[in-house]
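1st attempt posting a full record on here, be nice pls
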Amino acid sequence: YAVRATNGAGLVKEVKNIVIDKVDTTQPVLIVTALSEGQSYNGNWTNKNVEITVKDDSTALGKTDFYYSTCGGNTWSADPIPSSKDKQATLVLSDDCNTEYMFNAETDAGLHVESGTANPVKIDKTLPTGTVEILEYSKWSALVNVLDPFNIFFNTPQEVEINAADTASGIKEILYTIVEDPVAVDAQGVPEITSWDHTITNGGSFMISNPDGDKIVYVRIEDNAGNIYYVSTDGFVLDQVKPDITATPSFNADTW
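the predicted structure (as tokens):
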């Protein structure tokens, strides 16, 4: 801009050039996108990271900084989310949480707008826990290194109870199977069982009665985020058949 001043006598003050730049009245347009494993995140429980990308889709001049809040916008992060490129930043969430996130986009001109994620972020990477118990004998809370031959014996039907717990996403499903021989466990601690024969509710129980023979109960516990925990009993033998005893007298008929 060129500015000059003229008085009533027609005298003109020298021209002054005034440069006015960095004027921006464009409001930021905040777009929030949440992904997990490259797929759109829908707010369900997951045991994977969630990446939230925030972008200013406006034509505002300069850069845009992004801040986040986990308390409904009452307070904001002290520092902006590190930007990978101009007007866009990604927040990677990896810890267990059940949290609603809000974001604030602020331009160099001080204009800002707030927006939240469509769904709370729910991450649960913690394994559930569980126990399997032969009620008249003992309780187990992990996979047992079963030794053969078995040295636990029962001569009556046995009641088995299964309990599970998960403080974050909750228990989704409990499966169990009964086998005769110890099952191999892979390097990740997963028993090599291809078929889980039974489903049971948390805290439920069942009877083992027939047939007699060697027994091991394996249990698979899965939470709503996909974390899986395994537990088993020790090996035991169910034998309900009474021994058959015969006696044959041996004596000399000529003597008492």
